[in-house]
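Database export, one record per block. Field names are fixed; values are copied verbatim from the stored entry.
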Amino acid sequence: MIRRRNGTINTRERCGTSGPGWGSVWRRSMDGVFTIARNPQEDSKLPYLLRLPIEGGLLLKARDTWPRSSRIYCHPYEEEWPPDAEVVEVTPVVSCRRRGAVIDLVLDRPRLNRSQFVFTESRGRPAIFWQTRKAARAANPGARIPRARALPEGFAIAVDTRERYPYRFAGRGVTTERLALPAGDYAVVAEGDPIAAVERKTLENLAASLSDGTMAFQMQRLAELPSAAVVVEGRYPQLFGLEHVPGAWLADMLARLQLRYPEVPIVFADSRRFAEEWTYRFLAAALAEAPPEPDA
């Protein structure tokens, strides 16, 4: 018997053993739900299977059914979902989205509903940790500041061929190369395609591109990339002190574009120096957060 309690469908029946066609019906119903079952691999130290409704159904092995007090170690389940899996829980999903090296999972129930799957490295090997905010805090008691660098070094930044006075990124251990980019002035590229880009603007250039309408098309192109942003070499209040263009109108147009393209943040970085710093860190973070390449 299947019962719904606190937003969770609990069952102790095995899929495929409850009447004709039950197995196929169950598999179709797994879209949009988070499923936990017992791992049929009896010699595994990870006794549970998890199925996330993302990327065609991401299957993981896990130590427990929820990270209540500490992070849970997970590992990819390299086989197909077992047709006779002993299902423990099935919970409707509000949201399941990959954000770089993290998958955010929000379940449709009042408690124990928000968690993350973090794809990282542990002792030089790929690792996946399932955590809640409480578990993440417990893993870092006292909010210790990490000493190791969180961003990669020694990567290449592509600079658009039309960029006249490019950033040099001196002293940051990166190389630059000139490329004709489809969007933005700076980018990190994988297999010939940008995975993240930054459009650089001075205050005057920002005002001009807002006035003649080109900014909207630049935002459109940036939004087509996996990650993108606009960095402005100036402070937001300075918009209201520019000559020839009313500052309130510029601010209104900027707000409309940000609402239209929320996936492309517009960052005011105070000066060219800090805009260069922000660009470097954004591209480095995008490279570090890029999802792993699928196995061939």
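Remark 1: The two ends are 41 Å apart (CA to CA).
Remark 2: The longest helix spans residues 272-289.
End of record.
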